Amino acid sequence: MKRATAYRLGFIAAAVTALEVLCRAGVIKPLTMPAPSVILGDLVVILGSGKMNGAMAKTLANVAIAIVLSVSAGVVAGAAIHRWRALRDGLEPLFATYYAIPVYAFYPLFIVLFGLGDVPQILIGFMLAVVAVIVNTLNGLDRVPRVLAKTARIYRMGPAEAAFKVTLPYAAPYIFTGVKLAVAYAFIGVVGAEFIMSRTGLGYEINFAFNNFDNAVMYPLILLILAIATALNMSLHAWEIRLLRRRERG
Amino acid sequence: MRRSWSAMRNAAALTVAILAAWQLLYEFAGTYALTAPLATFQYAAGMLATQSFWVHVAETGRAFLAALAISVAGGLLAGFAFGLHRLSGEVAEPMLVALYSIPKITLYPIVLLIFGIGLPAKIAFGAIHGIVPVAIFAMTAVRNVNPVLLKTARVMRLGPWTQVLTVLFPAALPEIFTGIRLGFSLTLIGTLLGEMFGSQRGLGYLLMTAIGLQNIDVIMAVTLMLVIFAASISTVLIVIDRRLHRAA
Amino acid sequence: MSEPQVSLRGVTRIFADTGLGAEVHALGPVDLDLAKGEFFAVVGPSGCGKSTLLELIAGLSAATQGTITFEGKPVAGEVPDGVGVVFQEDACFPWLSVEDNIAFGLRRAGLAADESRRRVGHALKLMGLVDFARAYPAQLSGGMRQRVCIARTLVTEPRLILLDEPFGALDQQTRLLMGDELLRLWRDTGATILLITHALDEAAMLADRIGVMSARPGRILDIVETRWPRERDSRIVADPSFGEITGRLWKSLRQESLKTLGKAAPAP
Predict the structure, then answer these.
(1) What is the pLDDT of residues B193-220, one digit of tens each?
(2) Is B87 on the interface with C (CB under 8 A)?
(3) Which of B112, B155, C191, C243 gives the lowest tally of CB atoms within 10 Å of its CB?
(4) CA nearest C85: which of C52, C116, C55, C40?
(5) Between A94, A191, A206, which is nearest B109 by CB?
(6) Hey, are the CB atoms on B235 and A96 less than 8 Å from each other?
(7) Is residue A133 part of a domain?
(8) Chain A residues with CB-CB distance to B109 below 8 A
């Protein structure tokens, strides 16, 4: 194992241990935060009881829908925008400032428009994710060197065939970066929206537990969400590195 | 000069397109769902004229500026430390990246439990949103400084602090600034989110109460003002960012 | 010769644990003396440790074994006063103008403002940069940026100037002309010059003595004396000895280069 990895694991272990000690000693009061071991135990109980299965399914389903929508719409939009210079130039300021705009500010609007159901949350997740996909698709398509288009013509490929067999595979790793971001953003968007105002989902359950001073439910759920998000993002990141490594020298 | 003119023309065209789409949506969805662009601007202007609105703005502003200061100072400190000390940087980087991509809103209850309801919680929440990109970008910036520039500084026999201040920092500045720009946006988002609960004042609070009252006018007007504010500052920062990168 | 200005004895550089597992024996043992005011070139196959040698003499890194002295005092990991280095890559500070870049070299010197200005003005004239004093490096060509770096080194009036393949990125004609400029500077300043180059003709044309290095771990295989007159320029290539000298250099070098070619690419 690399030295850095060992240090990292050591650091995390030390931090968790320190937390455990501080909690058990009463320096951190149980009302503020229970000990890590207690949180873990509570999580096992919750998962075992199946009480949160509905909320988990709801959140993950909404996240998945947001991802699918943003990736498909994003790639198609990216490809279309890439073809029309004028459109791209026109949208450029939007893409540049997009992530500066507090997208959550639109959530109240969506609630009023669509009611307090799944749609506003999926919409927020979609809005956060789609531009990342578009921008990275554009970047990937930009990187396709002209010589490949010429090569496709020499093989007498039609435009659709060239797109599928040459352009898309070339741009794929860069588009994947967009997908990776879309997953993270969809997660952030949906869970965040659930937390702000909703009737179902893990975000809602955490908010509910918080308002009821129910640390035995709140902390394990927070841990669960963080664990799922981290696992998801880390595996996608590792995959992305592998894809990009094939393209770079050493 | 031609580039900035065409950029402005694009932005103008985009704004017109958005306003047109908005108007069309309003025609389609009706008065209970949206307010028309002109009406929204007028309502916003009206809000800007009231004293109470500025009380909310001041509240958000206070929290935001404090959070921003913490994000930038803390982020730069961490970024430089991790950038200069290879091993720490290698250890810390995946953790920073993980922090960047988790839904930080789930940490909000913990922040509230630690800081209680009020200004410190909002500042803390804004800061945890902003500090991570500043740190990550500062770290990468310091790492990516061309080693030949530092070797040159050593050949000139400059002391270590002089090297950091007069060579390392200016060389890393473009990338550091990008991190600060992102940190700005994210700190704003974090502060607003923080205000959406557990707060009695502030723009986030305004939005949340407006939902409860189904007050479309307030929702749309405040959202509009926030979008304009965020977009304008962001554009200014982007222009500075581009200038810095071009000089490099 | 009288007391050499730079002296290396048994200098070895071993890089420990580069992450690729084993340690890398990059250089040495090397014994070398440089006389004050001479123009010495070093040639060798790629990866033989030429740059490492330069960095050791400059004090940018420390030798694993052996001693290095500059003007009688030992050099170990710290850059001594009176040494200037021109690197292979563009080392101009992109955020400063040409003028400010050159003046930056005087930061440590603590000179009075007008002496500073005089030296900078002189360096600008010497390197033909007067018209570009306010320009920024990004606006200049590669050759001009190298001239800025050379100017920046010159203002400190170094007694030893080390150049690591400074003209590597330039085209042939520009290289020849820059070589002439380097000779002119050498004569004007009276400094000792150590030039690392992979171009045999450049070494043969410019230097008083040329050290040929072996493949990694680099050692000095041969030292060729050119015996050129001090007043020389690139037209020296017409001299009959020029062909002999380059021939002799290539004879030693060819063997070593073949060895390098046979191996895998050297670790960066």
Answers:
(1) 888 876 788 888 888 888 778 788 888 8
(2) no
(3) C243
(4) C55
(5) A206
(6) yes
(7) yes
(8) 206-207, 210, 218, 222
Over range A16-37, report the average pLDDT: 90
Q: What is the pLDDT of residue B248?
A: 65
Domain ranges, residue A117: 63-200
Domain residue limits, chain C: 6-82+158-262, 92-157
pLDDT of B87-99, one tens digit each?
Answer: 899 999 999 999 9
Q: How far is CA A106 from CA A120, A153, A159, in A?
A: 9, 46, 39
CB A240 within 8 A of CB A173: yes
Report the CATH fold assignment for B41-247.
MetI-like fold (1.10.3720)
Query: What pLDDT score was predicted for residue A165?
Result: 82
What is residue A249's predicted lDDT score, i.e. its pLDDT?
60
Which residue has better confidence, C125 or B246? C125
What single letter denotes the amino acid at residue C182? L
Q: Give per-residue pLDDT as tens, C130-160.
A: 999 999 999 998 888 999 999 999 999 999 9
Below-70 pLDDT ranges, chain C: 1, 17-21, 263-268
Predicted local distance difference test score (pLDDT) of residue C256: 84
Q: Which CATH number fits domain C6-82+158-262: 3.40.50.700, 1.10.10.10, 1.20.1530.20, 3.40.50.300?
A: 3.40.50.300
Q: Which residues of A touch B13 (CB under 8 A)?
A: 90
Q: Is C160 helix (H, G, I), strand (E, B) or coil?
A: strand
The total domain count for chain A is: 1
Residues 6+ apart with CB under 8 A from A69: A122, A126, A130
Closest to C86 in 3D by CA, of C107, C58, C111: C58
C-alpha closest to that of C142 among C204, C195, C90: C90
Q: Which residues of A103-136 are buried (b: 16+ CB within 10 A; e: fewer)?
A: bbbbbbbbbbbeeeebebbbbbbbbbbbbbbbbb
> B12 — contact with chain A (CB < 8 Å)?
no
A209-229: per-residue pLDDT in tens? 998 989 999 999 999 999 999
Whether B64 has its CB under 8 Å from any CB of chain A: the answer is: no
Residue A75 lies in a domain: yes
C19 touches chain B (CB under 8 A): no
Are residues B167 and B153 in contact, defined by beta-carbon separation less than 8 angstroms?
Answer: yes
Question: Domain map of chain B by residue range?
Answer: 41-247
**Helix, strand or coil, per DSSP, at residue C154:** helix
Is pLDDT larger for residue B118 or for residue A120?
A: A120
pLDDT of residue B188: 92
Chains that touch A (3 or more CB pairs under 8 A): B
Half-sphere exposure of B126 (CA within 13 A, CB side): 30
Does any domain span residue A44? Answer: no
Answer whether the bond into residue C29 is a cis peptide, omega within 30°: yes
Q: How many other CB atoms are found less than 10 A from the CB of residue C219?
A: 18
User: Over 90: is that where the pLDDT of A97 sits?
Assistant: no
CATH number of the domain residue A97 falls in: 1.10.3720.10
C79 with B155: Cβ contact below 8 A: yes
CA angle at A82 for the pair A76 and A84, rounded to the nearest 5°: 110
Q: What value, to the nearest 5°, has the Cα angle with vertex C95 and ends B171 and B236?
A: 90
| Model confidence pLDDT, tens digit, residues B140-180 | 999 999 999 999 999 999 989 999 999 999 999 999 999 99
For residues B206 and B3, the model is more confident at B206
Positive/negative CA dihedral, C119, C120, C122, C127: positive
CB A177 within 8 A of CB A240: yes
Quick check: C156 and B156 CB within 8 A? yes
Split at pLDDT 50, 70, 90, the class of A250 is very low
